[in-house]
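Record 1 of the preview.
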Amino acid sequence: MPALSRQHMNGFRLVETGLMGIASHPKVGIGQRAMILNTHAGNILWDCITLLDEATIDIVRAMGGLAAIAISHPHYYATMAEWSRTFGDCPVFLHGDDKQWIINPCPGIRLWTGETMEIAPGATLIRCGGHFAGGTVLHWETGGGGQGALLAGDIVMVIPDRTHVSFMRSYPNLWPLSAPAVDRIGAALEPFEFEVIYGPFFGRDVLTGGKDAVRRSVKRYVEAVTGDGSAERH
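->
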């Protein structure tokens, strides 16, 4: 960490009222962002970045510290143990289906099971599966200007046109998910209302019509992978 701190720093950007994004510069690994969501029960760190330097610690403490950490899938576990210990062994919510990928345990880890879990009023974890068996998104009921927001990591990946999303088993290997797996993701999200989808990188967000974007994207994905290849191109 000291060596990383000498060459990198974290930048903070307000995403919307109550939601702060954090990313390292120059980027570390794939350059994902973490987010700090302010709730009535305290701040929740969504997903994780590797660098945790003194400046970041001071800024997060000035924001009120962390009440909990929740992570979408093992690719973003990063230095979750250090973040938890730094902020009072705060709980780290991971889906139990991914417990085999925990390589740096800490006292704060809380394995949850089932399909949904409310970790703070208006903040609900939803197991979608897909990218990983325990792949999870976070539904923020009052986000998106009060119309609901989805903090999606890359379980539901916002694509460059920012009007659709897509789904992969493995991004580096371009290994797609099956139609049933994608249908399951759509079904898991259907009970929740959301206008906005926040992806894993700055600038990769669906800012309007998020739920319809998921519905349309699921439909076209399933049609593409189950068809004979002659369907209209998108």
